């Protein structure tokens, strides 16, 4: 991974060679302040909350199922594949084909395109548009960090975005939301460890309720989130 140090005279490329520097860069690109627009999406969670399927009581189970059987797991596999990839274009095609609704496809492509654009601006290296987990894995592929750590950081950021959506939509305090996120962290680490060695054969979902919610969201007349 290359980053850019800007001086008054010129732009100087440098290489991240230490785990400490890599972790700082990882935290930067996964920060809510990094402009990829993640705050605008809910992966169908908004419809599930609006319909009463997801409440304060059921949100932890929704998040757990998202991680083990839904988009959390498929994204973990796609990040892992991207960290080891040589053909990013083919992997991006696979990631897009794995999206089961139009909003889910738009969500991952728009965020991935934004991430690619920002990484290109930071590094000075071309970064073709790609689905989010592919763009992220490609950006992190040369980091001197264990792959489970990179995948876990990605999953934590995605789970945090869902919790944030819930805090904004339902009567759920931010501290309560953070407690839910903290309770999910052991499962995040376990999923990241499993995902790190996953192959394309492991790319599967069994979260029909979440997939239906994402499809139903497309027909909502009043909504806060884009998915």
Describe the structure.
The chain has 227 residues and is mainly alpha-helical. The protein is 61% helix and 4% strand. It has helices at residues 19-30, 45-50, 59-69, 71-83, 88-97, 102-123, 132-140, 147-169, 174-196, 208-217, and strands spanning 2-6, 11-15. Strand 1 and strand 2 (11-15) form a beta hairpin. Helix 3 runs parallel beside helix 9, helix 4 (71-83) packs parallel to helix 7 and helix 4 packs across helix 9. The two termini are 31 Å apart. Residues 1-14 have low confidence and may be disordered.
pLDDT < 50 runs, ≥5 residues: 1-14
How many helices? 10
Number of domains: 1
Radius of gyration: 17 Å
CATH topology (level 3) name: Urease accessory protein UreF
Overall spatial form: globular
Strand order of the largest sheet: 1-2
Helix and strand pattern: EEHHHHHHHHHH
Beta-strand share of residues: under 5%
Architecture per CATH nomenclature, i.e. the level-2 architecture: Orthogonal Bundle
Helix share bin: 55-70%
**SS content category:** mainly alpha
Question: What's the N-to-C terminus distance?
Answer: 31 Å
**CATH class category label:** Mainly Alpha
Mean pLDDT: 91
